[in-house]
Amino acid sequence: MSSGLDRVTLRQEAACDGSGLGNLVTGPGAACFGEEERHEVLDVLASGHLSRYGRMDDPGFGHKVYSLECEFAQFCGVNHAVATSSGTGSLLVSLLAAGIRPGDEVLVPGFTYVASIGAIIHARAVPVLVEVDESLNLDPVDLAAKITDRTRGILAVHMLGNACDLDAVCKSPPIMA
Ligand SMILES: Cc1ncc(COP(=O)(O)O)c(C=O)c1O
Q1: Which range marks the domain in which residue 19 is found?
Q2: Which atom of ligand 1 is found nearest the CA of 29?
Q3: DSSP assignment, residue 22?
Q4: Are residues 137 and 91 in the same domain?
Q5: How far apart are CA 128 and CA 109, in angstroms?
Q6: Are residues 146 and 95 in the same domain?
Q7: 44-95 pLDDT tens trace
Q8: Do residues 124 and 158 share a domain?
Q9: 139 or 31, which is more confident?
């Protein structure tokens, strides 16, 4: 069963090629979805199974989450993928998986969606705001200046589909493990 990932990917490609969808992304928190996504959601409601848990041999259970995880892992060329309930949930899981502990400082761009900072606080870490440059992403110069011996992570954001310069981020002074 398809999770709809293939169609979502096509829509993202369409958004990037200037064919119009990208123009709908107007600011942080903007949503971009259409008939395909509506169909996948209604499919879940119609099945009556709203949880990820169900019997795989039950023809009414769509196992959408499991299908998405399998397809996404394949898409990324990795063995496993774990779906979360939201982007905010993914950020929190990623911070904890990266070993961020209470009190650690995490650098984050000052221009971002509130979830970036909220996830750091939820992990009981300390968000340290970094200036953005004309790309609206992390300013590598201010980033380097904000790294201290308490810094344990950098939460880079690719704002509004605009790729952050990760090469520059990786050339920042090393942070303590
Ligand atoms: C940059 C960024 N990070 C995180 C999120 C949070 O995603 P969600 O609303 O699914 O929790 C958003 C939502 O728009 C976002 O724009």
Answers
A1: 5-76
A2: 14
A3: G
A4: yes
A5: 8
A6: yes
A7: 999 888 888 888 888 888 888 999 999 999 999 999 999 999 999 999 999 9
A8: yes
A9: 139
Q: Which helix (H) or strand (E) holds 76?
A: helix 64-76
Expressed in angstroms and rounded, the spacing between residue 55 Cα and the centre of ligand 1 is 31
At residue 129, φ and ψ (nearest 5 deg) are: -75, 135
Please choose from 25, 86, 88, 159 the residue to mutate so as to test ligand 1's pocket, defined by most ligand atoms within 8 A of CB: 88
- Compute the C-alpha angle 173/175/177, nearest 5°: 155
**Do 141 and 160 belong to one domain?**
yes
Q: Are strands 126-130 and 151-154 parallel, antiparallel or unpaired?
A: unpaired
> 86: Cβ below 6 Å to ligand 1?
yes
Is residue 140 assigned to a domain? yes
What is residue 105's three-state secondary structure? Answer: strand
> Among 54, 76, 98, which residue terminates a domain?
76
Pairing of strands 151-154, 105-109: parallel
Q: How are beta strands 105-109 and 126-130 bridged, if at all?
A: parallel
* Dist. CA 46 → ligand 1 center (Å): 27
- Report the distance separating Cα 39 and Cα 37, nearest Å: 5
